Amino acid sequence: MSEKIEEEILELINRSNFKQCYARLGQLQKQFPNAVYFKILETYAKFKQSPGKFDYKKLLDEPYGLKGTTITGDSRSLEFLHNFFVELGRYDEALHVYERGNFKFPSYELSYHWFTKALEDSNFNQMSKASLQLAKYSDSGNLPKRAYYFWNAISILAVMRFQESTVSETKKIVLAKLARQSLLDLKPFENVQEIIVYCLVLDELFLESKEISEEIVEITLITFDTSVNLYLKNFILKHVKLLDSPQKLFEVCSKLIEKGLDDYELIINLIEAAHKLSKPQEEVQHWLDGNLGDSRNTRLARLKLDMVYTKSVSEPSLSYYLSKYHNKPCCSVDLNHYTDHIDRDMLKSVMTKYDRDDRDLIHHCNTLEMGLIENNPICEYNRFKETLTKKPITDYSSCSTFILEIIKGVCKETSPNLKDILLCISMLENYQTKDPHNFDTACWLIVLYMYLGLVPDAHFHFSNLKIKNVQTDSMDYLQFARFSTSFPNKQSDFYSKTYHEHNNLYDVSLANLPRYIQIAFERSSYSKILGMFEMKDKLMRSYTRWMKTLENLQFSRLCNDKRGNLLQKMHEDWRSLEMTGNISFSDNRDLSILDKDFVQFFGYDKILEFANLNETSILLSLVRELIIEALPSGEKMEQISEFLEKLSSENLNELLANNFTEVESVSFQIFYEIYENDGKELHTLISKLMKIPLNAKQNWKISHIYLTKIATLKTLDNLKRIKNKETQKLVKNSLKKLRGCCDTLFKEYSDAISLAFEELQKGEPMKLLKELDFKLESPKNIKNSLLNIQKNVRNL
Amino acid sequence: MTTIQPFEPVDLFKANNVNLDILTENFPLEFYFEYMILWPDLFFKSLEMTVDPDFKHNISGYMMAKTEGKTTEWHTHITAVTVAPRFRRISLASKLCTTLETMTDVMPHEVNFIDLFVKCNNQLAIKLYEKLGYSVYRRVVGYYNSSEDGYPDTLKKVDDNKDAFDMRKAMARDKAKSVRPDGRNHKCYPHDVRF
Which UniProt keywords apply (chain B) (predicted)? Predict the structure, then answer.
């Protein structure tokens, strides 16, 4: 039975050539009367032929379900059954077939497949069961038997860490005891990785107790005689602290520091232990200096020593630290942590001592960041701008702090005006030429262009950041949050190259992760496996990933493209999320790159509104696409009802208003109205959509509103379900009207930009730019970029 | 206030303050995973205890390394060591290198030496490594050649912008076999540095 046969049958199913399909299957079943595989394929064909009429209970559940009568050990049949059940959203049954197969036809290979499938499905309970089965085969696999007990312990740890709600309290106790005992039976442990797993079991599966902590300290301390491992350092430190024995804590910390670990966590614990043991402050200080030499940590340790021994930081200690670090960028971060324990006047006077004329840029920035002097970013920039010409090109200048302070001051406002944003863009463009590698300023420049809807300009700077691979998940929000209504140009690098390249993270790397995790098990790299599961989970439910999927569907509707493959992929991705039992999304976006207090830039009419997404807005977008998918059939989908139930604790319209832009909200209402009420209010809602002003704001919303309207109307226009002639006419007329005003809309925006530039050339803003030695950006560049968008949009 | 911690996969979401640096390479996820799987101890980060952990950027730098080679050539190789701009000029890279040395000089690694490659024109980095006890062992001609440059066909043509110095620091057990005062005069091809 070759793979070719399966391909042949699936191809016939795909082409809906069921007559030929059944004939071929009949032939095969005659040829191989005992093969379950062809029976399953036939069942699948019946399902695909008419999913609505498919008798799940009789055809699938009764033979192969949880209490099924047919059990198979054939790996191809099991895999097909697994995927079939998954397609139907029956996740328990999907893996249960392996469990039952393993029970009736036990073999190493079958257990191995079971474990691998459970790993792919992130079903840690099943992984734990399968690993115990694997351990039954005395060294028959590639690995020694003991390895599978570690696989089992990690699976149990994963259940408790990520899927705790799936097990009862009694079972939790049993699993913990099982994991501990089976590892104890394997003692002595053969390497550090095995010790780490044992410590994880004790640390995470059992309640804190003296006995547990003593065991962990005992087992880990001895390893430091011959090796140094950072996981074990963390275990020993955590548990020696819980023992509440200063003597032991001092012993452990000193042993690890003597090993050469210059680690502040060890240092502060050593200081606290030494204090409790009444060791003199000077003795501890000398001991630290003797063992670690002169380092940032040992200089900061002086501050900690003062605080522990005398409750406040002394001048000699502060001087000792500042003499070396007053002009290092880390200084303010370090000292702000101790603000409450340092006398401000003393801090000010010691800082002054090290740069009396205040000539050092970094020193100056530190005094600013510690709030020791008043700030005037324009003057400060002018004072230090010469340093920009002298620095090596790869260095980052702290002058960006002054520029960004001005920019953020403007961007904090609600609805910042066009003129101010253009001024900020001019400042940043000028600054970027002097400090080209500075990514703080580059990110803000992207935000400003995106705020104005000038995607090609934003994309130029985005490309310069060379964001790629895993970085894309946390950084792509700058460009791809609402991309279908920003710049839907299939030929542009923005979409044809960057978007597709960046999606490799999900399409290729994420898909590869289970294989890598499996290798980690096989190579006994146990310490990283739980982290790998976490990574896989975060990527699976990533905001950026889901937003891109949903925006791409909208993009296809906008371009009248076929959406079949995209929808199929979306359903598959959704099922992988659903099978974990946790329906939620993960916000992996790195918003801190813009500001520590980034929240102030989000919200309605704020500078980052274009990227303002949350769990609800993503789920609502998903519901929108599911509704649109369901509309042609006129049938209600259980999944949609479930989501709406999950979401609608409040009024739906309120929910939409709180999580969508106005135009997105009305667009949703339109599709929902057709889905729920067969479009009774459709006429009113289309009029409501058309009444939303296109040019109320002079920013990204011009494209966004226009394109969301177009996407909505084009989708309606393609819906055969709308039979009402008047509504059909309204849709067509609205589309015509909308397209008719495209050029005027963008021309008006372009004129507004010209006017804003003219105003900038007069008065204060120009004076400011001159003062900073900056030039006003050319309106031509920006207007060309807008023209590029206009040309693209008007063809839709 | 730095603590040294294992680098976890999800740290990759939080390291943009380090990885947006133009000279820091962003590898495919699979490459990072390969290091985590094959050398789980040798991928670690420096974490700043004074930065609020809710604020994503408390990772100040990281080290990615591996062990390779046979018999006398058994050694640690530094693949990447990088530091966020905010935490530069405070010897953090040196600290990461020293921690690596502490870890691989003992069991289970017990290497003979640690090596790294640095562009011949990167004087700043060469000085830093020399300060840490590294010295030039040989010059790898065309190590940084682009696909347009092609593979070097001679060892006679040198280019500081395309060649790398293979710098080594010998551990005690190496008995200084990896140190040669005239290392800059020894040249080799890129394939000679594959283990």
Answer: Acyltransferase, Transferase
Option in B20, B40, B44 nearest A525 (CB): B40
- pTM equals 0.95
Of A83-97, A203-217, A219-233, B53-67, which gets the smallest average pLDDT? B53-67
Beta-strand pair B59-68/B75-83: antiparallel
CB-based contact B99:B148 (threshold 8 Å) = no
Residue B41 sits at the vertex; the CA angle it makes with B77 and A250, to the nearest 5 degrees, is 120
The per-residue pLDDT for A649 is 62
Separation in Å, CA of B184 to nearest CA in chain A:
26
Reduce the DSSP state of residue B66 to 3 states and report it.
strand
Q: Is A229 helix (H, G, I), strand (E, B) or coil?
A: coil
* Cα–Cα distance, A100 to A94 (Å, whole number): 11
* The pLDDT of residue A458 is above 80: yes
Average pLDDT over residues A734-751: 96
Interface with chain A: mutation pick from B4, B20, B95, highest number of A CBs within 10 Å: B20
- Burial string for A574-601 (b: 16+ CB within 10 Å, else e) reads bbbbebbeeeebbbbbbbbbbbeebeeb
Q: Is the peptide bond before A392 cis (omega within 30 degrees of 0)?
A: no
Q: By CA distance, what is B2's nearest residue in A?
A: A264
Contacts of B27 (CB under 8 A, 6+ apart): A469
Residues A556-609 have pLDDT tens digits of 999 999 999 999 999 999 999 999 989 899 999 999 999 999 999 998 999 999
The candidate with the shortest Cα–Cα distance to A428, out of A453, A455, A457, A456, is A457
Q: Does B94 touch chain A (CB under 8 A)?
A: no
Q: Which residue of B has its CA nearest to A366?
A: B86
For chains A and B, CB pairs below 8 A equal: 173
* Model confidence band, residue A734 (pLDDT cutoffs 50, 70, 90): very high
What is the rounded distance in angstroms from the CA atom of residue A400 to the CA atom of residue A435?
8
Partners of B169 in the β-ladder: B114
> A223-239: buried (b, 16+ CB within 10 Å) or exposed (e) per residue?
bbeebbbbbbbbbbbeb
Question: Strand B135-140 to strand B113-119: parallel, antiparallel, or no bridges (unpaired)?
Answer: unpaired
Interface of A with B in 391-420 (CB under 8 A): 394, 396
pLDDT band at A384 (very low <50, low <70, confident <90, very high): very high
CATH superfamily, domain at B1-190: Gcn5-related N-acetyltransferase (GNAT) (3.40.630.30)
A456 preceded by cis ω (within 30°)? Answer: no
B180, two tokens:
């040669």
A140, pLDDT greater than 70: no
The C-alpha of A601 sits at a distance from chain B's nearest C-alpha, in angstroms, of: 16
Going by DSSP bridges, is the β-strand pair B75-83/B113-119 parallel, antiparallel, or unpaired?
parallel
Residue A1 confidence (pLDDT) above 60: no
Q: Does B121 touch chain A (CB under 8 A)?
A: no
A286 CB-contact burial (10 Å; exposed 0-12 / middle 13-18 / buried 19+): exposed
| Pairwise CB contact (< 8 Å): A228 & B106 | yes
Asked if B91 contacts A295 with a C-beta cutoff of 8 angstroms, the reply is yes
Residues 574-593 of A with CB under 8 A from B: 588, 590-593
The predicted complex's ipTM stands at 0.95
pLDDT tens digit string along B68-126? 999 999 999 999 999 999 999 999 999 999 999 999 999 999 999 999 999 999 988 89
* Beta strands across the sheet bearing B75-83: B2-6, B43-48, B59-68, B75-83, B113-119, B164-170, B135-140, B187-188
> For residue A519, is pLDDT > 70?
yes
Please judge whether B48 and A527 are an interchain contact, meaning their C-beta atoms are less than 8 angstroms apart: no
B131 touches chain A (CB under 8 A): no
